[in-house]
Amino acid sequence: TEETFAQIKEKDPKIEAFLALNEEKALEMAKAIDLKGITTENPLAGIPIGIKDNIVTKDLRTTAASKILYNFDPVYDATVMEKLYQSDMIPVGKLNMDEFAMGGSTETSYFKKTKNAWDQTKVPGGSSGGSAAAVASGQIPVSLGSDTGGSIRQPAAFNGIVGLKPTYGRVSRFGLIAFSSSLDQIGPLTRNVKDNALVLNAISGLDERDGTSAGVSVPDFTAGLTGDIKGMKIGIPKEYMGEGVQPEVRKAIEKAVATFKELGATVDEVSLPHSKYGVAVYYIIASSEASSNLQRFDGIRYGYRSKNVQNLEDVYINSRSEGFGLEVKRRIMLGTFSLSSGYYDAYFKKAGQVRTLIKQDFEQVFNDYDLIIGPATPSVAFGLGEISDPVTMYMNDILTIPVNLAGVPGMSIPCGFGKDHLPVGLQIIGKPFDEATMYKAAYAFE
Ligand code: GLN
Q1: Is 147 in the pocket of ligand 1 (CB under 6 A)?
Q2: What is the average pLDDT across 9-30?
Q3: Which pLDDT value is given to residue 37?
Q4: Which of 141, 132, 72 is nearest to 98 (CA)?
Q5: Are residues 183 and 359 in contact, defined by beta-carbon separation less than 8 angstroms?
Q6: Half-sphere exposure of residue 117, counting CA atoms within 13 Å on the CB side?
Q7: pLDDT of amino acid 38
Q8: pLDDT the model gives residue 317
């Protein structure tokens, strides 16, 4: 833990991944764990971990990278935090992100712009940009992120590390500051596959405080890490290798396909015909749910309150006007619009119907295949400030969003380099609650 803080102090001035450190408490915890001793039953004991700043941590500032929560010190821990403590892991600090996890570059953070670990003129991806860059730059071995439309997989891809979004319901969302409740999942970002599986072991499981948490058994995700994937059946969707994908990214994925074949798997072309509607569906559903979830930030109970007020109405309006950033306001307006009477049927209801079609595409392929692979992102990391148009930014998630809409698990693992010698991420998508098979294939590939 001491070494971790030394690494953070040396490297973070350049990367700017951390929003808050937990140094005093972390060192105390480390001492207690030293006294207790580390056993094989607790392989994660004493391992430092960084936490995305939308996961609430008792007495440790939690802002979701928003001005509206600039002074929020939670009075309770998220379920995943309790589980990390049960594993004797040591939370060392909170990591930067896009405000309320809305974005794909960590540039919408109110506080600072995190840099890519490989090239500090590039974005780290987002919204879990701090979680990815801190791990990839060697500051911490492990972090937690959240993924609503790609926010674990895209930054993992951009920084050349392993990031997994579990099946919806696998990990409790209790204490995750809600963005889009039907899509959000917490998951681990690590430097290798085995570490990732170990952390998922620790944070998974039924939680009665999250009504959508699933009562399915949690296997040991490290059990299948044998390197043997002979006979595994893998599909690669033709829609994932089209025009919009950078040629260097396509090449890296083709090389990965060849590797899987050498390892004894079969890889066939498959189709996810409705995935092209994913981005449109996602921005209606995610923004609608966000507009409802974010109503609680009203300047009354906690967080930022405007001083510029004459009456109660002003408290609400001015606190929200001054406290939320541009991207968050854009989503609240879009969501409120698509939920309003007269538009509901045309937008929100229709989006739900198309979501079902997207889900059925995956079910169809998984009737015949164990896994789906493809690129995690159409491009490698882009430059800081390079994308200013929101729709161009939204299109970056075209390959990750369908996975959230379908509720299935998805991960990104490094698979070589593309343009400007930046890392390319291979996306592996599994059947619901079959993260074990994804880890098995990823481990053999790694
Ligand atoms: N980039 C997507 C968005 O802006 C996804 C974000 C996420 O997964 N939290 O909504």
Answers
A1: yes
A2: 98
A3: 80
A4: 132
A5: no
A6: 24
A7: 78
A8: 97
Give the ligand 1 atom nearest the CA of 104. Answer: 1
Check whether 243 has a pLDDT greater than 90: no
C-beta of residue 92 within 8 angstroms of C-beta of residue 50: yes
Best of 53, 55, 95, 98 to mutate for ligand 1, by most ligand atoms within 8 A of CB? 98
CA of 242 to the centre of ligand 1 (A): 22
Whole-number pLDDT of residue 361: 98
Write the secondary structure of the chain as one string of H (helix), E (strand) and C (coil): CHHHHHHHHHHHHHHCCEEEECHHHHHHHHHHHHHHCCCCCCCCCCCEEEEECCECECCECCCCCCHHHCCCCCCCCCHHHHHHHHCCCEEEEEECCCHHHCCCCCCCCCCCCCCCCCCCCECCCCCCHHHHHHHHCCCCCEEEEEECCCCCHHHHHHHCCEEEECCCCCECCCCECCCCCCCCEEEEEECCHHHHHHHHHHHECCCCCCCCCCCCCCCCCCCCCCCCCCCCEEEEEHHHHCCCCCHHHHHHHHHHHHHHHHCCCEEEEECCHHHHHHHHHHHHHHHHHHHHHHHHCCCCCCCCCCCCCCCHHHHHHHHHHHHCCHHHHHHHHHHHHHHCCCCCHHHHHHHHHHHHHHHHHHHHHHCCCCEEEEECCCCCCCECCCCCCHHHHHHCCCCCHHHHHHCCCEEEEEEEECHHHCEEEEEEEECCCCHHHHHHHHHHHC
CA distance 268 to 237: 9
Active site (catalytic) residues: 52, 127, 151
Centre of ligand 1 to C-alpha 295, Å, is: 19
CA dist 301 and 21 (Å) reads 25
Q: Are 118 and 422 within 8 A, CB to CB?
A: yes
Tokens (6 digits) for 366: 């998984």
> What does the pLDDT look like over 133-170, one tens digit per residue?
999 999 999 999 999 999 999 999 999 999 999 999 99
Whether ligand 1 lies within 6 angstroms of the CB of 163 is answered as no
Say how many Å lie between the CA of residue 100 and the centre of ligand 1.
9
Contact 98, 69 (CB under 8 A): no
* Dihedral angle of Cα 381, 191, 12, 56, to the nearest 10 degrees: 100
In the structure encoding, which two tokens stand for residue 92, read together?
Answer: 């060392």
Q: Is 149 in the pocket of ligand 1 (CB under 6 A)?
A: yes
101 lines ligand 1 (CB under 6 A): yes
